[in-house]
Design a protein that fits this description.
alpha+beta, 156 residues, 3 domains, two-stranded antiparallel sheet
């Protein structure tokens, strides 16, 4: 009794374990019957492997599709989408499409924020990491307007 292989083309919901189980059953049936119809087993193996390859390709496409970040241009303040692959390519200059100025790749990492709970009012706030290194700045909670002691914040 031959089991049907899944014919879906949605590789994220396709049950490859079921495909493999059906393949094992088919191979066992050929082995027990002694008919030697290995061609059918090989065809189903290729079909299953082809499904794996398609699923992997779809996963890779989705991974590389989301390789953009948005940041504020340090020159004009407009939001700019930057391909992460371009950041690491030394031959590519990052140009702002709004002001046509080159964005320094070092600026991309500026403005990283950490989130922490204000020790005074217990609200969750974002603090620019660069501000933590500036000893002349006082970090003030936007909710309670109290100065936050940043000496004990570990950035590692």
């Amino acid at each position: 009794m031959e089991k049907e292989f899944i014919e879906e083309k949605d590789y994220f919901t396709r049950d490859f374990k079921e495909d493999i189980s059906n393949l094992k059953d088919l191979a066992e049936g050929v082995k027990l019957s002694g008919s030697g119809n290995y061609e059918e087993v090989i065809d189903k193996m290729i079909e299953t492997l082809d499904g794996f390859a398609d699923a992997l390709e779809e996963i890779q496409d989705d991974f590389y599709e989301d390789s953009e970040i948005e940041m504020e241009c340090p020159h004009c303040g407009e939001i700019v989408a930057i391909d992460l692959n371009d950041i690491y390519d030394e031959d590519i200059d990052l140009l702002c499409p709004h002001c046509d100025k080159v964005i320094d790749k070092e600026d991309i990492y500026e403005g990283d924020e950490i989130e922490m709970e204000c020790p005074n009012c217990k609200e969750l706030i974002g603090i620019d990491v660069d501000d933590l290194y500036d000893e002349t700045l006082e970090i003030v909670c936007p909710y309670c307007d109290e100065v936050i002691d940043t000496d004990g914040i570990d950035l590692d």
